[in-house]
Amino acid sequence: MKNLPYRLTETQRRLLGLIVLQTDETVESDCRQLFSANPTVNLLHTRIAVNDIVSVDNLVAMKTHLTEALALFPEGKAFDAIGYACTSAAAVIGEAEVERLIKNAVNTAFVTNPLTAAKAALAHLQAKRIAYLSPYTENISLMMCQALTTSGLEIVAAGTFNQHSDKKVAAIDAPSICRAVEELTRKTAVDVVFISCTNLQCMDVIQFCQKQFKTTVLSSNLVLIWHLAKLSGSTLPKLCQF
Questions:
Q1: Residues of the chain with pLDDT under 70
Q2: pLDDT at 26
Q3: Alpha helices in the chain (DSSP H)
Q4: Tell me, what's the pLDDT at 35?
């Protein structure tokens, strides 16, 4: 066997990390879709254990698995930014606590999650009147609305598919999402519709809904990807240029 010479690449790409729920079938695909034409980004994923039933107790339980999930990233890497891809768990565990746990386990300059990212995106757009759509059970949806209103936002319309199974959340179809957006915006003037949940497959209907219902539509995955790009100094994907 002949030993062959080689050189090591000196990459200039931003290194981003994504913590994906065990039950999530959507966020990785959305990231690939938006970052596919972006040569400035290297995005690494890890998975975190979680029960399929979306409840407060199961969301809180993820806190005990976070360090284990982070340990599956390549050892010794310094990340430009890491995103924890769960909107509801960020609210239940606490945004600051999520950031603390991640920074204690991994070398990263920035940490975000869809709730933090949504607040940043809505502030960037100077939006105040929000229509909120989620697939969660009513109690978790109300907690999410409260997390947004404490940031000075006004929830002027809210609706939920009232689903507790993450597997079923991932299977909710595009027409159902579009009808829900229409229902929430039909009689109420809103600045932004925020579709909450990283597992809800809505990326492909965002532009349609914006044109059809004449309002800005954001989703958990869209704002998370936008915030990761902003924090890391990466080029913004086209759909994230709002």
A1: none
A2: 97
A3: 27-35, 56-61, 66-70, 87-93, 95-105, 114-124, 138-149, 166-169, 174-185, 206-213, 220-232
A4: 86
Whole-angstrom distance, CA of residue 7 vs CA of residue 238? 34
Q: For residues 45 and 80, what is the distance between their CA atoms, to the nearest angstrom? A: 14
- Domains of the chain from N-terminus onward: 14-113+223-240 (3.40.50.12500), 115-220 (3.40.50.1860)
Query: Encoding tokens for residue 14?
Result: 């931003």
What is the pLDDT at residue 102?
Answer: 98
111 contacts 99 by C-beta, under 8 angstroms: yes
Residue whose structure tokens are 């809904």? 209
What's the CA gap between 149 and 144, in Å, rounded? Answer: 9
Instruction: Give residues with Cβ within 8 angstroms of 1, minimum separation 6.
Output: none
Q: What is the pTM of this model?
A: 0.95
Q: Identity (one letter) of the amino acid at 69?
A: A
Contact 108, 102 (CB under 8 A): yes
Q: Give Cβ neighbours of residue 83 (< 8 Å, ≥ 6 apart).
A: 16, 17, 18, 19, 111, 112, 113, 114, 117, 224, 227, 228
163-172 core/surface letters (b: 16 or more CB in 10 A; e: else):
beebeebbeb
